[in-house]
Design goal:
alpha/beta
């Protein structure tokens, strides 16, 4: 074990609000950011059953608030705007700026969900490749049509482009890495940042994740996977983590970033410490059936490994932020896995999830839960699970429902996330005093 690592700043954007505090307050009040899918760039009306798909979309982000290069901002996609907003908030929260940190010892790790073409990216090229009477002419496309595709399209779709843009604006020259594509990516980003700091490779790391913009390609992928929830009426009730009537997950947009520092560095600059990163665990297994989620063994291993890395026993947990995307079998498997690791303490550790209110932010899901976990530690409160009306009758977990719950001082919080191909990630946070000062 190397240097202790602390959290000194957080930033987040989701359908619940455009800053971390607004989202936290909304979550405590039981507000949902889920509504009918609106404003699809392709101007299509996708339907689930006989209603428009439910989605948790971000509104009102002005890239000019966070991005200094206006020309570059115009070429960026929404996911990069979201990541800049979360990063800027986190750095402001931590009182970090290029002038008070060593650029060579400051890095960034980011989970980035798969970036997709918009139909508009290809529309002009397609139109210029039409020839009567055959319609689309591949020879015409190869000869002239392809020239109508902007060269910027291939650049903005790179999964490390967002990270690079942030690093260039803030002059971050230290370690960096991008991870993708789904719910595991944000946990991998935080875990990698933790190790880089512990090993002395950096003094400050920005770590987090960003979802894709909800366009046709992103939605088609989730529909193909068969994980999208049936839309309720009203749509806000569509995502139902751990509820017996859950039907799937709700696609969501957003980003979340944490500023992590070595304890000596934070002390040296007089930073206000919000929490400590105590441990990280990861595992992978074969999805147990047609529904894509980690197997029970992988979830157990990642949670147990994170607790072991944190040198904590289950009774020291004050709360678990479960992945709980609302998948019929996935949530049940996760509940069984959490119960198995907690053992005789399962009924005493509150378990929650924000996905009923925020939708599934994929690579940003665990980072957003991590931001909420930091708030839980600071305020000693755990938000209730949105839309949890009828918990599974055979669950032995203490699922938080109806209203927020208090947690004890000095206890830790575990955050779980799963990928769609069997990966499971877990990060454990604790109050700064948990290991002494």
């Amino acid at each position: 074990m190397g240097e202790r690592v602390v959290v000194t700043g957080v930033g987040a954007v989701s359908a619940l609000g455009n800053d971390a505090r607004t989202q936290w307050n909304a979550l405590l009040r039981g507000v949902s950011g889920v509504g009918p899918l609106r404003g699809l760039a392709e101007d299509l009306e996708l339907r689930s059953g006989d209603r428009p798909l439910a989605a948790a979309q971000v509104r009102g982000i002005d890239p000019g608030d966070w991005i200094t290069d206006r020309k570059a901002a115009r070429a960026m996609r929404l996911h990069t705007h979201l990541a800049f907003a979360a990063t800027g908030q986190a750095m402001t929260s931590a009182k970090i700026h290029p002038g008070n940190v060593d650029a060579d010892a400051t890095g960034i790790t980011l989970g980035v969900t798969m970036i997709d073409y918009d139909i508009a990216d290809l529309e002009l090229a397609a139109r210029r490749s039409l020839r009567d009477p055959i319609g689309f002419d591949i020879e015409r496309f190869c000869r002239t049509g392809w020239r109508a595709i902007s060269p910027m399209v291939s650049i903005v779709m790179l999964n490390n482009a967002t990270l690079c843009q942030i690093a260039m604006q803030y002059g971050l020259h230290g370690p960096n890495a991008s991870f993708s594509p789904f719910g595991e990516a944000g946990g991998q980003a935080i875990g990698a940042a933790l190790r880089m700091l512990q090993d002395g490779d950096a003094e400050v790391m920005l770590a987090g994740g960003v979802s894709p913009r909800l366009n046709l390609s992103a939605l088609q992928r989730m529909l193909y996977l068969g994980i999208v929830a049936r839309t309720a009426d009203p749509a806000a009730g569509s995502g139902r983590p751990f509820d017996r009537d859950r039907t799937g997950t709700v696609p969501g947009e957003g980003a979340a970033v944490l500023v992590l520092e070595t304890l000596p560095h934070a002390r040296a600059r007089g930073a206000h410490v919000l929490a400590e990163v105590l441990g990280h665990g990861a595992a992978v297994g074969v999805p147990p059936g047609p529904e894509p989620h980690p197997p029970r063994t992988a979830i157990e291993q990642s949670l147990a490994a994170a607790l072991d890395d944190a040198a904590l026993t289950p009774d020291r947990l004050g709360c678990v932020y479960a992945d709980a995307p609302g998948l019929p079998s996935g949530d049940a498997v996760e509940a069984a896995a959490i119960g198995a690791v907690l053992g005789r303490h399962a009924a005493d550790v509150p378990v929650t999830s924000a996905k009923g209110a925020t939708g599934h932010l994929l690579a940003a899901a665990l980072p957003l839960h991590s931001v909420f976990a930091v708030h839980s530690l600071v305020e000693q409160r755990v938000p209730a699970i949105t839309n949890l009306l009828h918990p599974e009758p055979d669950s032995n977990l203490d699922l938080v429902r109806d209203r927020p719950r208090r947690i004890g001082a000095g206890t830790a919080v575990a955050c779980l996330a799963g990928g769609f191909r069997g990966q499971s990630e877990c990060v454990v946070f604790g109050p700064f005093e948990a290991k002494g000062t």
